[in-house]
């Protein structure tokens, strides 16, 4: 009996036994995990099916949108004061379709989250005066924003001044414009700047419109800027930039001496 017992539990048999047990447990665990994952997937599909009506429709509905209206630059003008280019205050209307992160929020929640400078009292006053509308109609603060809602917000705009520096034109032809951008002027409209931007100044004072930006310089940075006047030239220059056929160099003027 002892010999038979020892023979039955010989090292080789023990190895085979535990290997079989390990593989069996692994297979059972894998099957169990697969079953659980499948159940989770079914639950997720079921939950998604249940919540689907609450989600915004597919983005293909945006194909019916029209381009946002472009505000005219004739509503105001520049004046020079103490070496600065300033803009007379003017009325301006912001246009925006309801963004994904706004969907389901009330109008009051939207302004409380993203435009905190406007109190509910100010927003209510704007609605009463017709300066804040959704789909062309005044709505209450508790109006819940829907996908594709068109929001308009009319304000009295006061722009920050910039240096009253000229914009030297280095080269201009039918396809290309090269300028020497002065400091303090942003390239395009942003934040508190619209009239006081390179694009707007060139359009308003030089009658150069519909420029295609190829690159940008920071507001406080001066230097050479290349802009295309046609879409075809813009695509060609973009391709040259992607292929590293063009390069930029930056120079920094400092006061003092760098340590050795």
From TrEMBL:
Protein keywords: RNA-binding
Sequence ranges assigned to domain Pseudouridine synthase RsuA/RluA-like in this UniProt record: 175-255
Name the UniProt record assigns to this protein: Pseudouridine synthase RsuA/RluA-like domain-containing protein
Keyword Protein biosynthesis set for record: no
GO biological process: enzyme-directed rRNA pseudouridine synthesis
PANTHER family for the chain: MITOCHONDRIAL RNA PSEUDOURIDINE SYNTHASE (PTHR21600), PSEUDOURIDYLATE SYNTHASE RPUSD2 (PTHR21600:SF40)
Pfam families noted in UniProt: PseudoU_synth_2
InterPro entries: PsdUridine_synth_cat_dom_sf, PsdUridine_synth_RluA-like_CS, PsdUridine_synth_RsuA/RluA, RluA_PseudoU_synthase
Region (Disordered): 38-63
GO terms for MF: pseudouridine synthase activity; RNA binding
Domain of life per record: Eukaryota
């Amino acid at each position: 009996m002892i010999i038979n017992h020892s023979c039955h539990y010989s090292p080789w048999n023990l190895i085979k036994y535990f290997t079989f047990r390990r593989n069996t447990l692994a297979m059972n665990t894998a099957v169990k995990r697969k079953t659980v994952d499948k159940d989770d997937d079914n639950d997720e599909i079921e939950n998604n099916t249940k919540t689907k009506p609450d989600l915004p429709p597919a983005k293909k509905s945006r194909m019916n949108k029209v381009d946002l209206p472009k505000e005219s630059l004739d509503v105001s003008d520049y004046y020079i004061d103490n070496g600065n280019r300033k803009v007379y205050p003017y009325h301006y209307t912001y246009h925006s379709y309801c963004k994904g992160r706004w969907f389901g929020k009330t109008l009051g929640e939207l302004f409380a989250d993203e435009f905190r400078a406007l109190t509910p009292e100010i927003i209510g006053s704007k609605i009463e005066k017709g300066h804040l509308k959704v789909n062309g109609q005044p709505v209450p603060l508790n109006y819940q924003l829907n996908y594709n809602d068109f929001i308009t917000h009319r304000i009295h705009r006061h722009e920050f001044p910039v240096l009253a520096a000229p914009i030297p034109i280095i080269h201009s032809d039918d396809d290309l414009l090269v300028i020497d951008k002065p400091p303090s002027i942003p390239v395009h409209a942003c934040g508190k700047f619209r009239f006081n931007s390179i694009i707007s100044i060139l359009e308003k004072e030089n009658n150069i419109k519909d420029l295609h930006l190829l690159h940008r310089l920071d507001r406080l940075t001066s230097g050479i800027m290349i802009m295309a006047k046609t879409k075809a030239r813009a695509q060609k220059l973009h391709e040259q930039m992607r292929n590293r056929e063009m390069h930029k160099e930056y120079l920094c003027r400092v006061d003092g001496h760098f340590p050795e």
